[in-house]
Amino acid sequence: MLFNTFTFIFFFVVAVTMSRAIKSWSLNKLFLLLISYLFYASWNPPFVILLWISTIGDWYFAKLIFNTASISRKKVYLFGSLLLNLGMLGYFKYANFVLENFVFLLSSFGISWQPHPLDIILPVGISFYTFQTLSYTIDVYRGNMPPAKSVLDYALYVTFFPQLVAGPIVRAVDFIPQCVKSKRATVDQLSWGVTLFILGLFYKVVIADGLMAGIVETGFSSEGTPGFLNAWGATLSFSTQIFCDFAGYSTCAIGIALCFGFALPDNFRFPYAALGFSDFWRRWHISLSSWLRDYLYISLGGNRRGKLLTYRNLLLTMFLGGLWHGASWNFAIWGLLHGLFLIFERSVYIILPHWRSKTNILFQLFWGGITYICVCFAWVFFRANSLDGAVTIISGMLGCHGMGHINRKIAFIVPISLVIFHWLMRDTTIEDAAVKMPYWLKSIIISIFIFCIILYWGGEDRAFIYFQF
């Protein structure tokens, strides 16, 4: 069930209405859990079983970890949780990838083997809820939180439908305490939640799908060698599409959750105004980047063991972060590139430490421009259908195939406008800007958004890009 469909609008209105009519908080939580299972089952009902396995397994592993005093037993139970979650994720997401690469490895030694491809369907959202349940058992193991007292609260944490299939990745320590006391969205929360939902739909329906998707599909699927302008037009368009698509989903999810009285963490903070690559990852997909930092990078040793090991940890973290997005070497290269960007940035700050504190606007534009251009080059590997396709686009961006021509000016106008908007908003939030805005202006902007959504909604209901991850 996609947010950008009339079916979901009906589902959402009925769910909010019924939730507000239920007086008992326990029954309300049970209702939210059941409709979350219904929401997930609308894609493929049997995969709800995987949710149950993950929920029940980590519920008991966390209890076992908390109730034993033996460090060695705690580690065994934690390993059981890791094996359960990563085992399911590995099988459904990476089994075919491993098999394909094994066949390629054999062929390089002159051994021909053609196995039957594994008929595996990727369960939607498995990467997201796997990371959520893992963070729960790891936090209990580290002593950051006790196990949840109510299995209902924990099950709702795992399954809460607004962010179930594409994030934000929520921490149990942030969500489960919200389940303890009865809550009902206030009028202000409902109003702001609906506003965020409209904003998210505008990002997705109008900008990502209506304006950018066609340009991106043409640019990355066309045969031949794109010229400089064609390659940059497609790449800049994708940088806009991927932000508006994913930030659109996250904004919708945060708004929908708020309508039920729950607060979800921000997932984007105007990333195309980042000053440097570490700043980019503090602004882009924040729930994933902070998860990788807290549960992978720090576990590997972080930056505590010298420069070379820090660089290794950065590369390995970003490499695995790339593979988390999909079973493809394109995603792995995308992750490695960001690891190299982070290493480059650290090296620059060692040589030129004053760069960290420079506030000159020309310097900020220079450093921010380098960041955005490098991020765009990396996006090519994220979007391209193959490594050869990525190399073709990159060579076009470097001018190896001539200048080409601009097929649609909007391929440059919309991305440049988005970057300018991010720079204007980089030190504030949507909430703060809305508070300072006159009521009549907010009403006009929301009305324009709704009009544009209706105007563009007549086309194809495209799934959100991050559903495939």
Topology overview:
Layout: H1 6-21, H2 25-41, H3 48-67, H4 71-108, H5 126-142, H6 151-159, H7 172-175, H8 187-221, H9 228-259, H10 277-281, H11 286-300, H12 307-325, H13 329-351, H14 361-383, H15 387-397, H16 410-425, H17 430-436, H18 439-456
Helix pairs in contact: 2-6, 3-4, 3-5, 3-6, 4-5, 8-9, 8-18, 9-14, 9-15, 9-16, 11-12, 12-13, 13-14, 14-15
Helix content: 55-70%
- Summarize the biggest pleated sheet: none
Distance between the termini: 16 Å
The percent range for strand residues is under 5%
The structure class reads mainly alpha
Number of distinct helices: 18
SSE topology string = HHHHHHHHHHHHHHHHHH
Low-confidence stretches: none
Mean pLDDT: 90
Number of strands: 0
Rg (C-alpha, Å): 23 Å
Shape: globular
Structural account:
The protein has about 475 residues and is mainly alpha-helical. It has helices spanning about 5-20, 25-40, 50-65, 70-110, 125-140, 150-160, 170-175, 185-220, 230-260, 275-280, 285-300, 305-325, 330-350, 360-385, 385-395, 410-425, 430-435, 440-455. The two termini are about 15 Å apart. The model has no long low-confidence stretch (mean pLDDT about 90). The radius of gyration is 23 Å and the shape is globular. The protein contains 18 helices and no strands. Helix 2 packs parallel to helix 6 (about 150-160), helix 12 (about 305-325) packs antiparallel against helix 13 (about 330-350) and helix 13 packs antiparallel against helix 14 (about 360-385).
